[in-house]
Design a protein that fits this description.
178 residues; 3-stranded antiparallel beta sheet; PH-domain like; alpha+beta; single chain; 2 domains
Length: 178
């Protein structure tokens, strides 16, 4: 019985390599995109956010809401640390098997649908809806890829959800330049 488990464990890594090679061998589209989009922030934005943060800290102190003060300070520190690091670039590959984002492959059978948001040179983003219950939507910057060609390719494999817009949090993040 122990040998039987050992044989099954040896087959699993080979299957993973096979799945990974399927994504790599037949890549129809390949491009590099930032892991997250960083917005340029000028001095006006920095001063405004600093004043708002100081006012929130003052309000929390004035009302003796120390949990609020700690939460605001923690959020500010995390934001500063996160945005001072350079953005990682990841490789995106679309193949007849699925979509590979960095090292993670998503077969088309694990996708419910897709939609593309394209507003000229300002926004060009591909969204994938997967069957995952936690964070089912994946947003991918299209960079210099032609959205019409990507759409044409994906409609052969996955349902396109027409009329979908970018999510509320994505819109807020873009408008507030976070």
């Amino acid at each position: 019985m122990f040998r039987h488990k050992e044989k099954n464990q040896q087959k699993k890594p080979a299957q993973r390599e096979d799945d990974s090679s399927r994504f790599n061998q037949a890549a129809v589209f390949t491009w590099t995109a930032p892991l997250r989009h960083k917005m340029e922030k000028g001095p006006v934005w920095i001063i405004t956010v600093s004043i708002i943060t100081a006012l929130l800290l003052f309000y929390g102190s004035y009302t003796s809401n120390w949990f609020f003060v700690i939460a605001i300070m923690t959020a500010a520190v995390v934001y500063i640390i996160d945005h001072t690091e350079p953005t990682k670039e990841i490789v995106i590959k679309l193949s007849d098997y699925g979509v590979k984002i960095g090292e993670h492959g998503i077969p088309f059978s694990n996708m419910k649908g897709f939609w593309i948001i394209h507003y000229g040179p300002f926004i060009s983003k591909l969204y994938l809806r997967t069957y995952q219950s936690i964070m089912p939507d994946i947003g991918i910057e299209l960079m210099n890829q032609d959205p019409a060609e990507i759409r044409e390719f994906l409609t052969r494999h996955v349902i396109e959800w027409e009329g979908k817009q970018e999510g509320f949090m994505d819109a807020c993040t873009r408008l507030l330049r976070l």
